[in-house]
Amino acid sequence: MSLLFACLALTTTALAQDDDDWGDDGDDVGFADAGPTSGPEEVSPWTLSGYLRTQEALWIKRLSTEPLGLARQTAELTVRYRKGAVTAVATGHGEVDPYYLTTDNYDPATRDVYGYLIQPRELWAGVVKGPVEVSAGRQVVAWGEGVMISPVDVINARDLRDPGMTDLSDLRLPVTMLRVGTFVGNHRFEVMGIPEADFGLRSSPEGPFGPIPGIAARAEVPEFIDVDELLGNIDTSYVHNQDRWALSQIQALGRWGWRGRGVDLGLYGGRVIDKLGTIGNPEDNPNLIDPDLTQIDIPLDHGLYWFAGHSGAAAVKSLLFRWEAAAEFGRPYNIGDIIAPTSTGANFYTIVAEQTVYTGMAGVGYTGLPRTRIDVEFSDGWVKDGGVNLTFPVAQAQLAARASHSLMRERLEFVGVFAGMGLTLPGEEEDGTAREFAVLQYGWFGSLSGSYEVADGLHATLGYVTYHEGEELSPLIGFNTHDRLFTQVRWDF
Q: How far apart are CA 328 and CA 272, in angstroms?
């Protein structure tokens, strides 16, 4: 089940450009930036910025029954202080969706997830002394070189509520950490401790991008049981087994980076928490055909596991080659079916097993055409000892591509994105049966959007996103009716 949300993360990040964190891209707490500009007038150390945004979306394949898919209104405000060696940032984020607050089409858990959200985002302070940088508070740290697929980007949880429609500024969610780094020539060394367990934002179990409807449709239960109908009368919600703050789940990580002439290299490692989580059995493991059953709290367990990774990038004229490799040791995954048949009906029934998974990514970016950028990335993985009967295909091949082109002095930009899962080469299985060639059998996603800068800081966007669940049970199960036509107007100030 955890790969369900991993795939959503992939499709979401497919719209985002991940930058390295050596400069002033927002990852590195800003210590490497230049100080206030000198001049005859004193420059205030305080700055105020933010944005207002409205997002709307229509369910294209359900216009006659449920046309509106989103009506979210968002406001974010950031206060920044920078003077000398000290930098501090405080950001507040709030959003409301009148449709989800008032509709009867969804259960209470979905209305809670999509109806409104008020939370702090970045909230940290830092100081630099010579080559040493220290910062503490809620921060965003982007690891790796991947534009769309990044096996080593494990620090921050994601906003996975609306795959394919999340702005870069909202994608990674800040987490509380103590971060210490230093530069030694072209080398950078950094360690961090993370006492907060932040599991991100995701669709509720029966929400618009929740897993339960799709899993129920594929569940192998007695013919006289309509699991979909049964779940329609039961409210489901996630419950995290871990506390947000606990000494037993502190994460500790470190990295080394080196920047040469046209080449970047990085090594990563540490003890991290599984932010996606594995589904456990609800308390008392209720039978789904129990007429008195009205509520199921599905527990999500977030275990710690060891992680090691490497990333690199090399520029050759108009090409930028990127690569990553990651190893996860003892990461928990679900085994078997989520909904299992019994002699009298059906139960939520899961087994969790620790697995060792190795993942590699290779990508290339091309900027040889005027006002055009093309990125293509491919990743694949391998589960030690085979990962027998994993609920979802943990180590399946993934292909992602992104192309953008700007016009009218870069005021108009078109962006196309594609991401898919699945590649099986012909051969012979261990039992002697023939293995046929298959591609994208676990589903794919695509989007096309255009954005126009109406005025300085004011952008209007129109786009379309389509989802295809594939022929095999996969993280995209149940998304075949989720095509959306979406609009967005955003004012940055």
A: 10
